[in-house]
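Appendix B, record 7
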Amino acid sequence: MKRSAGFAILALFAIAVFGVSGQAQDVQPPLTWEGKGGAMVMPRDELIKEDFQVTIHVDTDGWVKGKAFNENGEAKIEKLYYSENVNHTRTLVLILTLIEDEEEMLFLFEGKLIKDQLFYGEIYGKPLEKEGAVEKSLNLGDKIVTQIWEDYIPESLKNAKKACRLIGAFGVSGKFTEKG
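Structure tokens (predicted):
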């Protein structure tokens, strides 16, 4: 079977970016993942590009804390859902809250983490309602990291995604650090 030039270019790009031997780490808490990236969001009628940094820390008891931030403010990580590492890729879902003077939002970053270095995906958002049904079902005060499977995603997470609207996409390049 003939392979196209596009396939060859894609393969060379993948090798250049990720390396031949790059593999996802088998990480255990405590751990810290830090990265820098950008997002294209359309919260209203205009497309906005935002650069930001992310810090995710999971302690030895499996509790998550962290933030996504830039010079304009920060969103606090409330929950982390993850899947097992399959073929150097795992699914991650971050639930974040942004609370500023004029704006209170709930964000859901759903994406893939490739070789524990590239986290990319979609951003969903909705106004934060501190006593809202979605917020209560997510149990935002409980910051324990939760495992998900391809055939099992908690109802609270499914409902949160349904209640939010797609507002953009993101890409973050990062790595695990020694700050565990």
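Remarks on this record: The radius of gyration is 17 Å. DSSP finds three helices and nine strands in the chain.
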